[in-house]
Structure formats: structure tokens, C-alpha cells
Amino acid sequence: MALDLDAVGRTSEPVDVSWGSDEALLYAVSIGAGQDPGAELSVTTENSENLRQRVLPTFGALLGQRVSRPDIGSYDRARLLHAEQHLELAAPLAVSGRARLTAEVLAIHDKGSGAIVWTGVRAVDPTSGAPMFSTRSAAFIRGEGGFGGPRGSADDWKPPTRSPDEVVRYRTRPEQALLYRLTGDRNPLHSDPAFAARGGFDRPILHGMCTYGFTGRAVVAAACGGDPDLLTAIGGRFRGIVVPGEALEVRLWLDGADVMFQTVRTDGTVVIDRGVARIDASRRSR
Fold first, then answer.
1. For 79-109, how does the pLDDT look when each residue is reduced to its tens digit (9 = 90+)?
2. Sign of the CA dihedral 213, 216, 220, 222?
3. Of 84, 87, 98, nearest in space to 17 by CA
4. CB 216 within 8 A of CB 231
5. Residue 1 has what pLDDT?
């Protein structure tokens, strides 16, 4: 098995995707919304009195996965871990809509014990060509390093020395990964014990994108006053795994429009760090 280092710069054919109200509702529930049935009704229901349905912004990162990535060579899928995820939104997502997606291999970095593959996705309105959202994601593929390529630049992100301004706590459900896979990510690492064992895990683990979604909900709740339209960007690095059923704590440091965050398990293990988000208060619903 070997990665194709010439894949950098390779792009996919554009793909048109669409979504509707039901998919947005399923996504919200798949990342924990609704565990308190009376809360977050604007993202978990479409017919609650005096509420209009809204879309959680991290749904855009899920939509960005609907375009096939360009070929990067051969590797063992059981040895791939989601390493980073970033999302920028040109405007709040509609409850239903269409987008034209194009994926590009941005970089392949040699980390010695493995390789980091960066991929970007651009989403535009299929009719007007106006930007809708973009994503950048990194995959760490164990055992594929050592080819002598660039290591990539270091990130000097550090959490503030003061205590977090806000802390949001959620608990994942034992069946969380089985629910999240219904949004389209059927990687057996999150459902098949035998496949998870091939990857070195004693049980299936939660999707990194599900943990990312839980974190996005916390940012919306604590930094946006519950208004999902205010979040314009969110990204971070995956540092550890989450087993379905574990509790999460999202620690947030607020500085005007800028937010820094970490997501940790109850034992203190950091599962997402280098967390950054941006808020645009001018988008507040009137």
C-alpha cells in the first residue's frame, strides 16, 4: 500500500447535492440535541408553536462529505483517523437547499509514524455560483509516513491561562454512533467490533464528526445565545477518541467575536483542542 504523493492539487468533478428538513432534524438528534426534549426545539422540530426550524451550522461539514475525494492511493481504512475539521459559512444554512461541491487534495504531510492528508471542499450555489460554505479536513493515516515529504507547519495554539468563561456539559448516548451513522457516515470503525479491533480499538468509537457536532452545539449554546445563525466558522484538532456513552465537557474562552475552546472527557482527556470559532452578531434573527 502506498499514498500517491502526486495527488496534491487534484480536484474532483463538481457534484450537486440537496437536503431537506428531515435531514437537518436527523442531524441535530444524531449529535445529541433533544436529550432534553423541551430544549433546542428550533433544530429538532419543524412545527413547534412560535418557532421556525433552524439548522445547526456544523451540518455544513456533514454536507461537505457528500462529494467523493480525489484518489490519494491505497491504504488500510482501519488505520485512518480524522485529525482536524474546519468549517466556514458564508451565510446561515437553509432548512432545505442545494449546493455544488468540489473537493481538492490540499497537502500530504509526512509525520514519520503516519501521513496527514489535507482535503478542502468548496460549496457554491448551483444557480448563481455564490459561495455558501467551505471545509478543510485532515486525515491521519497510521503507517503511511516516512516518505521524506514536508512535515507541515506547527500551530502555536494554546488555551488561555484563565479559567474558561463558559463550560457546557453533554453526555453521549451508548447508541450515539449507531444513530450518527444514519446521517451517511457508514465507516465500520464506529459500528463493527471486528473492524475496530483491526484499528487497535477494543470497541467501536464515536465518529470524530459527531464529537465535533456536540462541540458545535456547545458553542451555539454558550457563545451564540442559542442562535445557530451567529456561528460563521468553527474548527479544531481531534486529540483523543470518545466511546459512545461517555460524557463531554466543552470549555470556552470568549473574546468578542472570537471563541477558543477545548472538548474533554470527564477524566480530563482532551479530545478536541486548537478549537477556534467566530461569531457574527449582525446575523442575529430579528
1. 888 999 999 999 999 999 999 999 999 999 9
2. positive
3. 98
4. yes
5. 56
Whole-angstrom Cα Rg for the chain: 18
Handedness of CA 88, 237, 57, 64 (dihedral sign): positive
Which residues are CB-contacts of 218 (< 8 A; sequence separation ≥ 6)? Answer: 168, 170, 250, 252, 261, 263
The candidate with the shortest Cα–Cα distance to 175, out of 196, 191, 161, is: 191
* Contacts (Cβ under 8 Å, ≥6 apart) of 225: none
What are the DSSP calls for 158-216, one per residue?
Answer: ---SSPPSEEEEEE--TTHHHHHGGGT---GGGT-HHHHHHTT-SS----HHHHHHHHH
Dihedral class, residue 40 (left if φ above 0, else alpha if ψ from -120 to 50, else beta): left
pLDDT for residue 78 is more than 90: no
Q: Are 201 and 194 in contact (CB under 8 A)?
A: no
CA angle centred on 35, ends 44 and 89, rounded to 5°? 45
Supply the residues annotated as catalytic. 185, 190
Sheet with 166-171: strands ordered across: 15-19, 97-110, 114-124, 131-142, 80-89, 231-238, 270-279, 258-265, 247-255, 166-171
Grid cell digits, residue 113: 509514524
- State whether residue 5 is helix, strand or coil: helix
The pLDDT score that the predictor gives to residue 54 is 96
